[in-house]
Amino acid sequence: MRDSSSLKMLGITTMMLVFSVLHETSGRDLRQVTEPKIPAACESLKGSGGDETAVIQKALSSCTKGKTVHLVSGTFVSGPLTIPSGIGLWIDSGVTLKASSNAKLFDKGKNICGTVSTQYNGCNPFISMKNVDGSGIYGKGTIDGQGGVKLTGKSQSWWDLAHEAQVKNQYQNNPTLVDIESSREVILYQVSIVNAPNYHVIVGSTNGFTAWGVTINTPPSTRNTDGIDPAGSQNITIHDCSITTGDDNIAIKAHFAPSRHISVTNCRFGPGHGMSIGSDIDEGVSDLTVENLVQHDSLNGLQIKSDRSRGGLVTNVTYSGVCMRNVTNPIVLNTEYSKTATGDHIPEYKGITFSNIEVLTPGKFTFDGFSDAKPIQATLHNVVIAKGSTWVAKHAKITGNYVEGSGGKGC
Ligand SMILES: *[C@@H]1O[C@H](CO)[C@@H](O)[C@H](O)[C@H]1NC(C)=O
Ligand SMILES: *[C@@H]1O[C@H](CO)[C@@H](O)[C@H](O)[C@H]1NC(C)=O
Ligand SMILES: *[C@@H]1O[C@H](CO)[C@@H](O)[C@H](O)[C@H]1NC(C)=O
């Protein structure tokens, strides 16, 4: 009697275990995403190298839904542009679209864009897609933010302003390169986005976003130049990307709404602050899969960061098939990103799975939960770390263990 009931218990426990492992791998973009196609052109433009804001904007505003404005050849310089609903911007191979270095063109009306100030949010973005459905940027050309170029009539570049702001503990008023807000089904396909004055791509309150074959490249010495930041957004796919920058390669946030159903697949990260979740996650981040990622020469690898002023629940996250070399903090789960933060938005990270992770060089691994009442709950399957690494786990329930490897084949 006693035996049969404990056998039954074992059976049920095994079933539940199999069930939960299967479910852990289910958090991803719910859409069936395939490689985008570039829509036909409504108008073709050749760049003269001069300021063409009005020409490009006029073409975008008069284009037919479902079509693209095709930048065919040359270099274009422009101030802020708005892509209307259903319209694409096609930047063809060899074409460069430069953000103007004239800060006045980006000013939001407070006359502080291009300055270091105690006020922030003084600039409009370079390319905006707001309240759109089915808009996008396509083609193998380049969007160049010119972050390191001296601003018109000034002795400093956008990046110089960012460093000055750090020293003065104030804000640089620099534009975001591509800002997508309150939209549906937006696509970035093949384009290179480089030298951002501030963030490269923000995806706010958006349902359905695909970045496919996108390259982001900005020097590691720059500040606040995150690669792609989904915030309060759902059904996100970032596939076949290459991201090198001075801040988070990707940062998933959830300040005003939850972020969930996100897939990051087949990407390669150079220098940067990592594949990050945080810092603002009040509304929760869940159902994220990061699969087939290579990270090298960066500060952080897989990072979740928040604190009690802006924490929330992060769950159903799977990292699988990640190879790292020369990464200072290959895994860092931090609930006290700001040690001086106050508040009761306690960060809670559970259902975090690390599967087939290979770290070739020594680094620091941190699992720092908030308290024994709200510990980090993580699972490790086939996690291989380099000899000489540091492993710190506090307020953490970790299932499975890592093994020390000998350096492996490289990645
Ligand atoms: C996490 O995944 C499980 C199983 O798929 C699901 O029941 C649960 O609602 C998810 N939690 C969140 C917060 O998405
Ligand atoms: C996500 O995609 C699924 C499948 O297409 C869809 O049913 C769901 O409504 C989408 N969610 C949002 C928030 O758009
Ligand atoms: C390791 O990465 C750092 C940047 O984090 C870089 O400065 C350094 O040159 C890299 N080392 C090697 C051996 O590549």
For the report, how would you describe the main beta sheet?
Answer: 24 strands, parallel
Distance between the amino and carboxyl termini: 55 Å
Level-1 CATH class name of the domain at 90-98 and 123-144 and 176-405: Mainly Beta
Determine the structural class based on helices, strands and strand pairing. Answer: mainly beta
CATH superfamily of the domain at 90-98 and 123-144 and 176-405: Single-stranded right-handed beta-helix, Pectin lyase-like
Helix content: 10-25%
- The parts where pLDDT drops under 50 for at least 5 residues are 1-25
The portion of residues forming beta strands comes to 35-45%
For the CA atoms, what is the radius of gyration?
A: 23 Å
SS element count, helices: 3
Strands, total number:
31
Q: What is the name of the CATH architecture of the domain at 90-98 and 123-144 and 176-405?
A: 3 Solenoid
Ligands: 2-acetamido-2-deoxy-beta-D-glucopyranose
Signal peptide: 1-27
GO molecular function, one term: polygalacturonase activity
InterPro entries: GH28_Enzymes (IPR051801), Glyco_hydro_28 (IPR000743), Pectin_lyas_fold (IPR012334), Pectin_lyase_fold/virulence (IPR011050)
Active site: 273
List keywords for this structure.
single chain; 411 residues; mainly beta; Pectate Lyase C-like; 3 helices; disordered N terminus; binds 2-acetamido-2-deoxy-beta-D-glucopyranose; polygalacturonase activity; GH28_Enzymes; Glycoside hydrolase family 28; Glyco_hydro_28; signal
Task: Describe the protein.
The protein has a domain at about 90-100 and about 125-145 and about 175-405: 3 Solenoid (Pectate Lyase C-like). The protein is about 10% helix and about 45% strand. By secondary structure, it is mainly β. The chain has helices spanning about 1-25, 55-60, 160-170; strands at about 40-45, 70-75, 75-80, 80, 90, 95-100, 115, 125-130, 135-140, 140-145, 170, 180, 185-190, 190-195, 200-205, 205-210, 215, 230, 235-240, 240-245, 250, 260-270, 275, 285-305, 315-335, 350-360, 365-370, 375-385, 390-395, 395-400, 400-405. Mean pLDDT is about 95; it is low at about 1-25. The longest helix is centred in the N-terminal third of the chain and has 23 residues, at about 1-25. The structure holds 2-acetamido-2-deoxy-beta-D-glucopyranose (3 copies). One of its GO terms (biological process) is carbohydrate metabolic process. It comes from Ramulus artemis.
